[in-house]
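Model: You mentioned two targets. I'll fold them one after the other.
Researcher: Yes, keep them separate.
Model: Target one:
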Amino acid sequence: MRSIRLKPFIWWALPALLFILCSLVYTGWFQQDVQPELSSRQFSEETLVDQLLALRLDERIHRVSWHYDILSIDFQIGESEQAMASVLEDIGEIGDFAFSETDNIKQILVRVLSAPSAKNLLLAIDAQRSNWMVVNRNQTSTQLWLKQLQQQSKMTMTRQAVDRYQLLQS
């Protein structure tokens, strides 16, 4: 059997090379720059648009804000009674999504403004995760859903909204 003879240069070069490689791996030189992946149940600024678009809301969103665990949404609606019924349905969809399908939204603030000026406040809602109950809105009338919404959130309707959309405020 033939023995392998290495030159003295290689005897000190191999450990040095091994040391350098280990140092590079230890410091992260060879690691890919990977962003931590968010859970599908986490709402974030990066996913805000995609997640709200996926809800397929009927009414136009005027403004959205995400700050810590509070989601704020402003809607603009037209003059028709159908517009108010539609935005109330949208609010239910947002609440169900926020409180059932995410882990990090604790509060929703919704304002409904009259279009086109968006200066007249019609309705304001402050809903908390701890008070939200998922309701089958397909089997309830707008008036019944509105009463349930009043019971599970802090809601304020202006006189203009009550008169214009024939909303019952209890």
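Model: Target two:
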Amino acid sequence: MTSRKLLGFIILLCCGFIVFALYLQHYQDVLPCPLCVVQRYAYIAIAICCLFGRYTPFIRLASFFSLLVAVGGAFAASMQLWAIKNPAIQCGRDPLEATMNSLLPAKWLPSVFKSEGYCGEVLDRILGLTPPEWSLAWFMLFAFIFFIIMLRRRR
């Protein structure tokens, strides 16, 4: 598969993940925590970088920035998993919540970017994994793909 086709597929996956997160939020009443919102930002940023790389000659540059964002998203997912495994650390209010909700996207599109949940909340499993576990797996897979794209020779 060509690098441009891979980037197109990743764009579709990222859009699908955002749609699924909104479904969980609005129809299953799973409120997003600050780290969930950070992961949403990461998926959107990856999709934008992939879009840039797919339609410009700067595919390696776009892959580099996508790799950085994927590593950041994996870190956010790891932090959420750590918060779930260590519930005693949480004091009932997440300190990231006020910061995340003061950002402009949270004010412009609160239904997408407003944080209202707790990072330590245990979520139901979907096909054997919780949403942050799925997110971590996908971010790691994306990082690997972006690294491979950066190493490929031009054709």
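Researcher: Noted. Anything on target two?
Model: The mean pLDDT is 87.
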